[in-house]
Amino acid sequence: xxxxxxxxxxxxxxxxxxxxxxxxxxxxxxxxxxxxxxxxxxxxxxxxxxxxxxxxxxxxxxxxxxxxxxxxxxxxxxxxxxxxxxxxxxxxxxxxxxxxxxxxxxxxxxxxxxxx
Amino acid sequence: xxxxxxxxxxxxxxxxxxxxxxxxxxxxxxxxxxxxxxxxxxxxxxxxxxxxxxxxxxxxxxxxxxxxxxxxxxxxxxxxxxxxxxxxxxxxxxxxxxxxxxxxxxxxxxxxxxxxxxxxxxxxxxxxxxxxxxxxxxxxxxxxxxxxxxxxxxxxxxxxxxxxxxxxxxxxxxxxxxxxxxxxxxxxxxxxxxxxxxxxxxxxxxxxxxxxxxxxxxxxxxxxxxxxxxxxxxxxxxx
Lengths: 116, 239
Hints:
heterodimer; A: mainly alpha; 2 domains; 6 helices; 0% strand; B: mainly alpha; 12 helices; globular
């Protein structure tokens, strides 16, 4: 429990650092993402914070789908202009995803062949 | 600094009883999902949201009251994004071993996944609002939600698009790997992580821990990479 609380506190602090960095340097990225990059840099040079973070981060990531429930429920309230376009949206998503996977497979085939 | 703290506190302090609706709905669906052998089409997010919507209709609860009442969950998206640094830091040591092919696959794959999506949206004549809302769809949700709010899309539409992308990604991946002869579980992981983010990563862990590790790496790097190039290039696609 203590580890969970301290871990969460560290995560929140890094999020704030990120928010602060984004504001000060006027960066066009989400503050939490910059916070994640800060924490990643810190963890790759110094692992001493890692034992404190394991519990909080693994619990948050394990139940992360719960955090998306409110925002995803909002999809039922988008209004007719967008829900009328839903079939097209789904078609675009399907085609884009398949093409992206196929493109990556080709890239990987060519770069790993060049590497061998 | 104080303004930032006040904003976050307002988000948390708005939390009220609709939170119980979310948590109980999710808990039931999560239990059902695990009982049914974790089939991806029974993903708790996919079945919990219509269930909660029906409950809201039944008790005549409007969306903004519901959303505000779930403030603490929305607030936790920030720390959850930061938390991704932990599994990513474990996987970064994989990077030097395959540095060149991995970097090429990650950077080009991430660019292609986003731009083909934007081009198709234009091709199908969808509106700018929809374009801004779908632009981040192959990025993992906590990062994608922040990114979408940043560029001015609708976070709720993005959340659905992300979920649908992940599900399509894992359904298609298996036959794609067979057709293109991608049999190395590391590369399968990278493809799943970049194109199907967290849902793909969960699937990759079912193949092997190594596959899951590479999917985590693909998902994390793609999230950072897309956040860097998307806000800068989105202007090219809107009128």
